[in-house]
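Sat 14:20. Reprocessing the chain from the morning session after the first attempt stalled halfway. Input below, unchanged.
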Amino acid sequence: MEYWNNPKIQYSQTVLPYPLDTDPIRASSHSGKHVLFYDPGVHKARIRYNNTIQEQCDWLNNSDIWQDPFRVASVVKLNIYVEDIKRQGVVKPMLLYYDGNEKFGGHTGENRMRASELLPELEFFESFITTHEDHADQFKHLPLIENFEQWCEILRTPVGTQHSFTLTDPDAPYGMYWFEYDSDRTRAVTPGYDWCETVMRNYLEKYPNKVFTPNWFDKPVDWASLDKSNN
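Finished this time. Tokens:
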């Protein structure tokens, strides 16, 4: 069972400008039980992720997709994201977790992994790695991130940038579950779930017999034209 399906998990989210007295990176360590590292280039072969592009296509073609609006949003975002990566590259680091398995799991960045199926030049991913202190020796060659100041230095975010975190509890196999921060460079490729569902419904009304293939993700859709609230 994945840990986020465990009802023992405790979620907390804090939205923080920099600098602040409250330090979310220190909080994520749970008094030293968890550690956070930075790797400027994790090879994609070391990262496991759910739902390849072909699996997304199979789901789109054969399922009642409206039962899973979050997955619908991932489809729309990936179509937007592939074109954006071609233009400016990957902007944000991934958040990976290590729980003793052979490969890292991904808390953020699964669409980047899918994009790498279409963009072979995407081989290495800047990443934060969250894990239990029991595994710390495996990552001693990497910088240990111990506070929010270090975090912001790596991200090169200006003072006042909004950061969001979801932390686990002290008994979890890793300390951080999710993060996000505001960026002008990525705002256009991170639309909300409701918007994604709306434009996808309108797309399928326009193309009711659409058969999805991996190539579809490599051809940008004019999603803005499908947002009827703007028309």
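The domain at 8-230 is CATH 3.90.1530.10 (Conserved hypothetical protein from pyrococcus furiosus pfu- 392566-001, ParB domain).
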